[in-house]
Amino acid sequence: MKNILTGELVRLSALDADEIGRTFARWGRDSEFQRLLNSNVARMASAKNAQTWLEKELDEQPVNLHWFGIRKLDDDMLLGDIDLYVYNWSARDAFVGLGIGEREFWGKGYGTDVMKVILRYGFTEVNLKRVTLIVFEYNPRAIRSYEKAGFRHEGRMRGVLNKEGRRWDMLTMGILREEWMEQNK
Amino acid sequence: MKDLFHGEFVRLTAEDPDVRAKIEVHWQRDSEYRRLLDSEPAMVVSEKWLKDWFEKRNEEGFSPNRYVFSIRTLVEEKLIGFFSLWVDLIHSEAWVGIGIGEREFWGKGYGTDMMKLCLRYAFTELNVHRVSLGLHSYNPRALKSYEKAGFQLEGCTRKDTLREGKRTDGFWMGILREEWLAMQNGAKP
Lengths: 185, 189
Ligand SMILES: CC(C)(COP(=O)(O)OP(=O)(O)OC[C@H]1O[C@@H](n2cnc3c(N)ncnc32)[C@H](O)[C@@H]1OP(=O)(O)O)[C@@H](O)C(=O)NCCC(=O)NCCS
Ligand SMILES: CC(C)(COP(=O)(O)OP(=O)(O)OC[C@H]1O[C@@H](n2cnc3c(N)ncnc32)[C@H](O)[C@@H]1OP(=O)(O)O)[C@@H](O)C(=O)NCCC(=O)NCCS
Fold this sequence. Notes:
CATH superfamily of chain B: Gcn5-related N-acetyltransferase (GNAT)
Strand order of the largest sheet of chain B: 1-2-3-4-5-7-6
Strand order of the largest sheet of chain A: 1-2-3-4-5-7-6
Shape of chain B: globular
Radius of gyration of chain B: 17 Å
Number of domains of chain A: 1
Order of helices and strands of chain B: EHHHEEEHEHEEH
Structural class of chain B: alpha+beta
CATH topology of chain A: Aminopeptidase
CATH architecture of chain A: 3-Layer(aba) Sandwich
CATH topology of chain B: Aminopeptidase
Shape of chain A: globular
Distance between the termini of chain A: 15 Å
Mean pLDDT of chain A: 96
Low-confidence stretches of chain B: none
Distance between the termini of chain B: 23 Å
Number of strands of chain B: 7
Structural class of chain A: alpha+beta
Largest sheet of chain B: 7 strands, mixed
Strand content of chain B: 25-35%
Oligomer: heterodimer
CATH class of chain B: Alpha Beta
Bound molecules: coenzyme A
Strand content of chain A: 25-35%
Number of domains of chain B: 1
Largest sheet of chain A: 7 strands, mixed
Number of strands of chain A: 7
Number of helices of chain A: 6
Number of helices of chain B: 6
């Protein structure tokens, strides 16, 4: 069997509350990163805030959540985090979310690589039937990366977001188990 | 000013938890209603559980991002359904959930009337920019009713439901404030 936790450039790793708490606090200082990541109001968290929150989350480890660090294979550097959240077990559908906090590593293939790893994990380990994601229209890099990983466009919620004094659309994308199987024969 | 609480066939009400629980337990025994409403595995719950739940919501009191109404018919004063609006306060947009639990009232125009009140409330009282909702592709009655109220189909989550051995799609729809305003001035949905 394949090593399902490793891709070509990166591997999935365990999250260490101490390390990632400090790193999250640092990544959070990049407001562009925060705005690409989610629609919340950009806020600052101290390393201690982030650690306390993470310890609690990691302790609970609900069966719905599969959450990993992303590390480079060559030097083991922590690049970001990725999670699969199964929100519908009867249809076996999960949301995926990821972020590379180290911005000098954007656009170099790491994101697409880790997405391929988590899709293989989702479809062959968690036995999902579908993976879903949402992405904002002002994030063309992410959209392109998801297309490369095999996602298809499923629709666009018009004008959901308000940032920078204007409205923006939110796109949704999805990939079905049978599509993934076909692409990975 | 326009009446926010009365439509053509229905009015918005607030109900005491025991009244609401008594009727809700009866609605929830209808598995078709449950399966139209959402994607959670259909469950039966006790009247006591529901009453506690409604009481807890009451105790929480006012919340700026959650608006829940019960619905009565104008003619018989019959309690037939509900709608809820959840507002994202930062982005000024809202999600709606709606249901008529009394199945003999399906397909008679009550739901569209409820949705019109819901939109008037969302756009002229909460002042949101947009209202969204989701539904199953196997619910054509709901789709038709939402289109009549002015919603546009915006996307389709392929095969996100597995019921009765069939994988079916999820739809979501949206209406923008300017589209709703144009309809008030006579534009067709
Ligand atoms: C989204 C993210 C995970 C993508 O990973 P990545 O490693 O940057 O992406 P990749 O390098 O694998 O692929 C990016 C693709 O977009 C292209 N691209 C880069 N910038 C672009 C831009 N401004 N417009 C259009 N395409 C762009 C790249 O050329 C590449 O496509 P190609 O291989 O066909 O040339 C990563 O950029 C990231 O974490 N960003 C910050 C947080 C974030 O956006 N999270 C996602 C929230 S949904
Ligand atoms: C969805 C719901 C609120 C709609 O309210 P309603 O009062 O039934 O809808 P209306 O009568 O106002 O409009 C329904 C429209 O669909 C049409 N319709 C009814 N059954 C239909 C069917 N099987 N296929 C296609 N159209 C149908 C009706 O003819 C009517 O259109 P018309 O006025 O052009 O003739 C209500 O049916 C309901 O609560 N159902 C159960 C729970 C539910 O589905 N909730 C929604 C979850 S997203």
